[in-house]
Design goal:
alpha+beta; DNA primase DNAg catalytic core, N-terminal domain; Dna Topoisomerase Vi A Subunit, Chain: A, domain 2; 25 helices; globular
């Protein structure tokens, strides 16, 4: 079904109603029923006893070890490392709901080259054709021999969905004639190309072994192809990839991230290689955190993707001259993005696949453990072969290059992490020792370079927001929200008597205002409806925590909910009047009021105190 979304049509709510949280979470991880809820091993910490709880009735999840929780949207955002809009689209697609903005252009017709669902289906179909050809076709014997020569076993071939495209200009095109996929669709999916001379379509990947490129949700979105020597000509590129499509952008995608993602999240470390076969061999040897770029240099956008998964990146480069050059090109990107980068240049000019076959996983792991910090690597490579004491010209050139690299990092501020402060101090101290230069002079030069190249500076990353905790809330504020989670029938009375400003905790004010929004829409203020209305994952987590806490309290509280609400109303009203009284007292003490104003304030304070003590107002006469 198609669903427009705007001020009167809440897409979030419709998707929430269509996707059950147990089905969703269960598609990512094993769950088992425990009482009324479901439990499983949390994917975000080393969990041995199930601490991940899914409440089907409340449509919420919570891990008490991580102190994180929320709804279907926050689960997908955290699990896939995506923003809310992407999570909404992904869940809508899962539910068969088509989102369409009023402001957007008309949605491409189903089955057309511009329709993303059609392109996803075309890529999945093509992947299956390539894979079946490799496994069953006699003409793929040459491809099977190639993979065997590279020591790729059958399990890896299956896990990575490897395939083969025969040496025919129209093999895939002919197979598509009995499908809904037109040549124009296959071209839009990056599978066909069109001759500039004849205008005819032909198979882009003819005569190549196929490496499907899958997105983090394991959907094929593009392909890499390696020409087999038997079919190569002088004009054949060794590797080609799908062109940029609506599904695939080489600057955003990382090969095998769908397979490595869970292990990367747990270890907080990722290994980035350059070749598809290198990654396949790394996984085959047990290095399950390896990914690769897709026929391009590592970009700033790749780094943004990796930051969602890992704290540390180990970049593994071939030991040839080209690998050395790429090291220097990539270094500045990491310095600017404040990633913890380690660089491993393989010895003897080997690539990762050859090194693993020769030295095994233990040999590779030993090198990975010794990989140099990016700055250390830069100092080594740029000073190699230079006599820093005698060859002053080359030494000054090397130092200037290194200082220029350091200057690409964002300026230090009050929010800068202590680890980065320490690292920069250590680097500057090392340069001062190596080049026999005063540290103050180096800092001055870095400052000059930063001022001279403002366009190259990267905005300082925002400091991580402190995690919201129930213990940080005002107890009365928390009690009010807890009461509303369990007794939505009291929301109308509460919202009439208590204004948001009477709550002293900003997070609870925001949650309380969300109750107002839902009630204002004329909808029931059920817990999971309010949870859906919230956008901030931290607030979702806080509301789930308050709900869980309230469920436990309800088992032991003797007083009825309506009486508790009346007490809260009186307490918050008294707190507000006390705050107002203090403000009036302060105004009097400043002595900047007129005589009439002072007298009026005094009378208000007397009346307020009389009410507090229960003294009746004096009667006339």
């Amino acid at each position: 079904m198609t669903m427009s979304f705007g001020p009167n049509n809440d897409a979030k709510e419709q998707v929430r109603q269509a996707v059950d949280i147990v089905d969703l979470v269960g598609s990512y991880m094993p769950l088992r029923r425990q009482g009324a809820n479901f439990v499983g091993l949390c994917p975000w910490h080393e969990d041995t006893k199930p601490s991940f709880n899914v409440n089907q009735a409340r449509q919420s999840w919570k891990c008490w070890v991580c102190n994180d929780g929320g709804d279907i949207f926050s689960f997908v955002m955290k699990r896939e490392g995506i923003d809310f809009r992407e999570a909404l689209e992904m869940l809508a697609d899962r539910a068969g709901i088509e989102l369409r903005s009023h402001a957007a252009l008309a949605r491409p017709e189903s089955g057309s080259p511009g329709d993303k669902k059609t392109l996803y289906a075309a890529c999945a179909w093509a992947e299956e054709q390539f894979q079946q050809c490799l496994n069953r076709s006699a003409e793929a014997d040459v491809a099977r021999k190639y993979f065997a020569s590279r020591n790729v076993n059958s399990e890896s071939a299956k896990r990575f969905h490897l395939g083969f495209s025969p040496d025919s200009w129209q093999w895939l095109l002919d197979r598509a004639r009995s499908t809904p996929f037109s040549p124009q669709v296959l071209e839009a999916a990056g599978l066909l190309a069109k001759s500039p001379n004849s205008g005819k379509f032909y198979d882009r990947f003819k005569g190549r072994v196929i490496f499907p490129i899958r997105d983090p949700q394991s959907r094929p979105i593009g392909f890499g192809g390696r020409i087999l020597p038997e079919f190569a000509t002088e004009r054949s590129a060794k590797y080609i990839n799908s062109q940029e499509t609506r599904l695939y952008s080489k600057s955003d995608q990382l090969y095998a991230l769908d397979l490595a993602g869970d292990n990367v999240r747990k270890s907080k470390n990722v290994i980035v290689m350059e070749g598809y076969t290198d990654v396949i061999m790394a996984h085959q040897f047990g290095l399950q955190t390896a990914v690769a770029v897709c026929g391009t240099a590592l970009t700033e956008r790749h780094i943004r993707v990796l930051r969602r998964y890992a704290d540390t990146i180990t970049l593994v480069l071939d030991g040839d001259d080209a690998g050395q050059r790429r090291t220097n090109e990539i270094l500045e990107l990491f310095v600017a993005s404040e990633m913890d980068l380690r660089i491993l240049t393989l010895p003897q000019g080997l690539d990762p696949c050859d090194y693993l076959l020769t030295h095994g996983s233990d040999g590779m792991q030993s090198l990975l453990d010794k990989a140099l910090d990016a700055f250390e690597h830069a100092v080594e490579t740029r000073t190699r072969g230079i006599d820093l004491l005698r060859d002053t010209h080359r030494a000054n050139q090397a130092l200037e290059q290194l200082l220029s690299t350091i200057s690409k990092a964002p300026r230090m501020t009050g929010d800068t992490s202590s680890s980065r402060l320490l690292r920069e101090r250590q680097v500057i101290a090392r340069l001062a020792r190596e080049f026999r230069v005063d540290e103050t002079s180096l800092r001055t030069r870095i400052s000059e370079l930063r001022k001279a190249t403002p366009a190259l500076r990267t905005k300082v990353a925002e400091a991580p927001r402190p995690r919201l905790s129930v213990s940080d809330l005002d107890p009365c504020d928390a009690e009010l929200i807890e009461l509303l989670t369990q007794h939505p029938e009291l929301a109308d009375e509460a919202l009439t008597a208590i204004v948001p400003d009477e709550l002293s905790s900003r997070p609870t004010r925001t949650i309380y205002e969300t109750y107002q929004v839902v009630l204002g829409k004329g909808e029931p203020v059920e817990f999971n409806r309010v949870l859906t209305e919230l956008d901030d994952p931290q607030l979702k987590n806080l509301l789930v925590s308050l709900d869980e806490q309230a469920i436990e309290k309800e088992k032991h509280v003797q007083e009825d909910a309506a009486s508790r609400l009346r007490w809260l109303i009186e307490h918050l009203r008294g707190r507000r009047e006390a705050d107002q009284g203090r403000a009036k007292q302060a105004a009097l003490e400043q002595r900047n009021l007129g005589e009439d104003e002072e007298l009026d304030l005094l009378q208000q304070l007397v009346e307020q105190e009389r009410k507090r003590q229960g003294i009746p107002a004096p009667t006339d006469g």
